[in-house]
DNA sequence: TATGAATGAGGCTTCATTCAT
DNA sequence: AATGAATGAAGCCTCATTCAT
């Protein structure tokens, strides 16, 4: 095996390790809350030394941000895969589903974002995150504008629709994770279904939000 | 002045100080995030010593919970003041407005609740909080059931409607506070109005969620 | 009632309160250990305010010392009441019994003395304590010297005998309070009896320490 | 040097540091009393940072217990080294000497044990301590039982003899450390000798406790 | 590159003592 | 004299980050 090959493999392994760390961190953050998870716990989970983590990431905050970026990139990937389809409802539906599917994860990211911005930490990565997100948003905006041209959506600024959906999604997540309200929801699946339907058609002209029709 | 009177005044002042501490704590939590606010900062803000705080509250967690309870009691007060009115839409509207009006506060409480429950701290107060909240919920449920009898609401379990509204409110809050999405909303007031309307009529039969009609 | 009488009664009540505080303090120290007992707890137990305690005693250390002095004075009282009797064994026996009877109390005082001396607190009271104790010791020494003249005790320095008895008493107390060794003693009374007998005759010439003869 | 060797050396050094911390802690506890010694003082004494202490021990209480266990293990070691010898008096004598030789240390441990048990701290280590001590006790019990078979000891339950010796040792320690009684003892060595002799023969049949015969 | 021991700033909490009423 | 609210020094412990090997 040549040196080049070796170096490539090494780089490969390094990337792989990075992914492992992020995966472990995410899992632990979700399970215990980011405040109760120490860098050492993450290292243990991956089976490496604490110092090694700092070979990959400068600070714990950077881990936070990379997780969030990864999430947003997955969303971008989803959008790319849908792009070009005819079904105009598909994109918002997928967006909505994606976000609502893993409530705790999104909730975590929301918390992290507020925290990281409050501390003004790692501004470059915050910028990167926002750039990706803006692109994703753009996809949505364009879809919505098409919907408005097709005269199926209320003629309000596009972001009203997005924001509405975002709000509902965000809220639905909060609801389903609320230790208190959880008790009141018997059939989670049915309720999720209900929410998604309302969410998607909420901004439609005419019979908005109607379910099962 | 009699001794009784004196004692009463002292008790009064003690209560007052308690309120001051909670107010200061809330203000600081909202401004810097609860993690960046130390007990000492709260004391400084009120202009008292660190130790004094602990004459009023056993732990920082207790401060968290008392703030949340206060909030929920304000809501209860609101419900009481409305009770007995004819306008069936009034209650949900007020609920929705109340929650959406002070986004950061609610968001803070949501974060705190998750944190406090995760740490299993001050369970008696958590119980108290949930009791009050359950009562508030009851008010809503009853109103909604009346709405369903009056055949203006979709015949799904009442909490579907509440949950929906909760979710939207929660989400709207998250949205309006999101450092990222904020940039996209030009006219906050108009948007809030839009959301509130959608929120209230979302679950209506027929022309749900329609605005200005 | 004249002013004098009133003043006298007041003084009387003041003394009484002082005694109450000391009693309460002792009880609490014995139950929870002096470190876990706050001045506030003592005040609550007596049913007075915390500040009042400081009208009677300058510091918590002073309370410690006054308790110890009271104890030593009780011992002096005991010696006085015996003085003049013929039975030469009576004094040591009473001394030994007195100390061994309330193990935890003595242990507490022992702990306190070390603590207070280490901190060099309230030296006047420490002196007072030692003066009283020296007097008590003197009573013992004289009794022992008489025993030696009567040729019933080993002719070693008198304090050897006292110290021996002290040591055994102290040790017996430690033993009976040791959470560990306690498990090994089935019949406490019988064992105490055994100890006391050994203690008294330990220094005798000839058949020393023999039991039941 | 191989990696294995390196790791071994590191582990070795880690152990060594642990010992250093315990030694420093013990020295400080003995000198100032455990309450006046802060974790930071221990760290300073060793010449390390405060946090490092917590890499080795979870709490200050754990340090207390490990010191006590170490002490008890030394005793066990002593017993092991004697085991099998013919001289039946050797074991109790060594036990007695061991305990009486370092009075302040034992006294410290006695205080610590009571404290730690009152706080119900680190129960696993308390158990471990008691297990070791029970084994040590067993050695003594067996020796004593042999003495009774040989008809040289009073036929009371074996633990009476142990307890007696324990009590005397404990008491002797308390005595020699008592800031008050200390003044009365001129020749410490002679007195210790006196005590040890009494201690060992105290329970003998016949001429018990006689010295130099 | 990987490691993990070491660091120390910083947080929460306790409680003896003071002092204005 | 009695009170108890207020104080703040001081202690224990956590953990992100550094750095020598």
From TrEMBL, chains A, B, C, D:
DNA-binding feature ranges: 38-57
Keywords: DNA-binding
Gene3D superfamilies found in the cross-reference section: Tetracycline Repressor, domain 2
DNA-binding found in the keyword field: yes
Top-level taxon of the source organism: Bacteria
Listed Pfam families: TetR_N
SUPFAM superfamilies named among the record's database cross-references: Homeodomain-like, Tetracyclin repressor-like, C-terminal domain
InterPro entries the record matches: Homeodomain-like_sf, HTH-type_TetR-like_transc_reg, HTH_TetR, Tet_transcr_reg_TetR-rel_C_sf
Sequence ranges assigned to domain HTH tetR-type in this UniProt record: 15-75
Leader peptide range in chain numbering: none
DNA-binding among keywords: yes
Name assigned to this protein: TetR/AcrR family transcriptional regulator
Protein species of origin: Isoalcanivorax beigongshangi
Upper classification of the organism: Bacteria, Pseudomonadati, Pseudomonadota, Gammaproteobacteria, Oceanospirillales
């Amino acid at each position: 095996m040549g040196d080049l090959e070796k170096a490539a493999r090494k780089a490969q392994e390094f990337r792989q390790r990075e992914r492992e760390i992020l995966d472990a961190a995410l899992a632990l953050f979700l399970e215990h809350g980011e405040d109760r998870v120490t860098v050492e716990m993450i290292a243990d989970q991956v089976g490496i030394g604490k110092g090694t983590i700092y070979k990959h990431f400068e600070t714990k905050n950077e881990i936070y941000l990379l997780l969030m970026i990864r999430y947003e990139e997955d969303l971008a990937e989803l959008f790319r895969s849908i792009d070009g389809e005819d079904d105009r409802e598909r994109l918002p539906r997928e967006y909505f589903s994606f976000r609502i599917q893993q409530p705790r994860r999104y909730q975590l990211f929301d918390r992290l974002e507020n925290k990281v911005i409050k501390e003004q930490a790692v501004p470059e990565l915050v910028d990167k995150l926002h750039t990706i997100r803006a692109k994703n948003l753009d996809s949505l905006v364009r879809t919505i504008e098409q919907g408005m041209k097709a005269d199926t959506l209320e003629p309000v600024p596009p972001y009203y629709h997005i924001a509405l959906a975002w709000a509902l999604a965000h809220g639905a997540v909060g609801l389903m994770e609320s230790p208190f309200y959880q008790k009141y929801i018997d059939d989670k699946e049915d309720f999720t279904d209900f929410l998604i339907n309302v969410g998607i058609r909420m901004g439609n002209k005419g019979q908005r939000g109607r379910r099962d029709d």
